[in-house]
Amino acid sequence: MGDMTEERAYDIVLFGATGFTGALTAAYLARHAPAGARWALAGRNPRKLAAVREELAGIDPALGDLGLLTADVTDPASLRAVAESARVVITTVGPYITHGDALVAACAAAGTDYVDLTGEPEFVDRTYLRHHATAVASGARLVHACGFDSIPYDLGVLYTVNRLPVGVPLTVEGFVRASGTFSAGTYHSAITAFSRLRESARTARERRAAEGRPTGRWVRGLPGRARFDRRVGGWALPAPTIDPQVVLRSARALERYGPEFAYGHNISVRTLPVALGLAGGTLGLVGLAQVPPARDWLLARKTSGEGPTPELRAKAWFKVIFLGEGGGRRVVTEVAGGDPGYGETAKMLAESALCLAFDDLPATSGQVTTATAMGDALTWRLIAAGISFRVRADTWEG
Ligand SMILES: NC(=O)c1ccc[n+]([C@@H]2O[C@H](COP(=O)([O-])OP(=O)(O)OC[C@H]3O[C@@H](n4cnc5c(N)ncnc54)[C@H](OP(=O)(O)O)[C@@H]3O)[C@@H](O)[C@H]2O)c1
Known about the structure:
Rossmann fold; 16 helices; binds NADP nicotinamide-adenine-dinucleotide phosphate; 2 domains; 21% strand
């Protein structure tokens, strides 16, 4: 942590505390922030913020005094005040491509660490182009995708790599299975991202040109194809989400991933009809999102603040299997937990902020991934918080 942040009023400020995921994150902090942690809530509506604080006081009466900061993404001075009051800012205000940029700018300028829940590649590439250099200069660590996107994959691959030999070419493939439904915020972010595929591809190209590639090491994504994969006993569909991008970024930053590293990312389902339904449904939404009236109709289907009920969340689960191989060794690992979209996402986001605020971490700055900025320290926190990371087998057949 740089000198710039030593005198801050708060260790952590949570922006978006009035939203669906923000409220879950606030409740997680209320139960799990260490004694003496100084944290506060921020949002645009003081009345709604006060109501969230009252809920938190039901968990711990001392939280009745929690600080409340009023800030709106359309008011840069209010975001500057948030960034300058905190050592770490958490934001759940999405879609990030619409609402996110000004807060990243404020944190980069103020040397404030930043975590969010985005799964939007265009947003992350844009903030790299606009704010990475400023954050490197100020010492701020800008860590995107600290939820189900992309922590299980980023830290799961790191966990797998750590169980394979050093200094040799490595290949890892991830297969995710999950159940659960989504909130309005996630739905709006996905439809918005589907409607901007061309802009997204252009921003990715600009980033590639600006960022360059590590010299003397080779990092690549495995080409995806739909197939029945005997090794995991199910259909594997390539998943061009932000997750493989984050994994490959960590591989470029960390020597431990070896001289040649390849990663393949898949969604895994048991039967062909489910695979066809998932692929068809996604393509259908992508198609509709291209047509403005259809897109507006889709967006109006869900209202901000809505999300799955506690009963539905209690039944939801996720499991990611990784097959790792290199230097004559194989390993099968697994990362698993409960409700991926919300319960576990709030946990991952809050633990990321606590990790940046309180753990002894390698010196990093600028836009960094969870594996690069926090790595094993965050993995240990998540294990302690009930997310399982384990070795399933030391080889596989086929
Ligand atoms: N990657 C993952 O694994 C994952 C999982 C869950 C969620 N997410 C992402 O997290 C984000 C939030 O989702 P959600 O379902 O929690 O959304 P939500 O319930 O709609 O909450 C949105 C929040 O943003 C605030 N907000 C909107 N406009 C604002 C403005 N102009 N200034 C300040 N605050 C503003 C809202 O404040 P008000 O209450 O005042 O309206 C609310 O607190 C989405 O982008 C979603 O994709 C990602």
